[in-house]
Sequence to fold (318 residues):
Amino acid sequence: MAIATDAMHELHGETMGTTWSARIVAPAGVSVRDWQDGVQRCLDEVDAQMSTYQPDSALSRYNAAPAGTWQAMPDECFAVIAHALRLARDTGGAYDPTVGPLVNLWGFGPEERPEHQPSDEALLAARASVGWWKPQLNEAARQIFQPGGVYIDLSSIAKGHGVDRVGAWLDDAGASAWLVEVGGEMKAHGTKPDGSPWRVGIERPDGSGAYDHVLALSGRAIATSGNYRRHYTQDGAVRSHHIDPRTGYPVAHAVASVSILAARAIDADPLGTAMTLLGPDEGLAFAHARDLAVLFVLHSERGWQTRMSPAFEAALRA
Fold:
């Protein structure tokens, strides 16, 4: 079935343990199936390189590699790991893609969820493997050093990269405009057929589906990281999926969600995690210094409290 000029079509699929969707303003002469297959192929390739759930992915092979070895990585996977490690450096280790052993220990990775809080001994052993400075990079050879026990987890950045990759593919394939979403991370290009901008709402972090802020997204990406989405209760305490690599424990402050606007989804996605771990005071200071568009939604005795950077305030007014 051919798509008419300026027609908008919605596509859907599954990837990385979640779902994806795309709204595409497409030229004539290309079938819906070709668009669907092309988007799915992009995301399958990202997952095949960066999944920790697939034992034969490039990332899983690195994580299982012997100590003291250099591991060649696909260019794409190497670039995403390098990007994540730079953010880890810039945040002083609040964000750290080597946090995988702790993520797994608390039951938010491919391993089973523990019945009780991990022991001090288990936490100490897992933390010994964590450290963003440990996997040295050889840029020229696209190799990463495995010192032994380093386990990289890209779940906080791979979806954002996937959004950017799909967007680039759609541009090359001739789409005039699009809105792409992977697991809640979004990016838009161009406008709808009627000339109006793509608009997205920021969900209230109470599971109600209500939106407190709506903004135009065309030409940029947005990512929202929320503790309300992935958590469980254990031994009478709520365990967030955001594990602080500096302490080894799930983050316990008042942040309910963080939303980030950026030019690229690969920036917005991990920054949501970084801001959640830094907390509102340190996070907003980080955002001010770098002119980042950041919105915090906090738990308070009077209900939800919002704090945002000047760049985010400007985006709401646009």
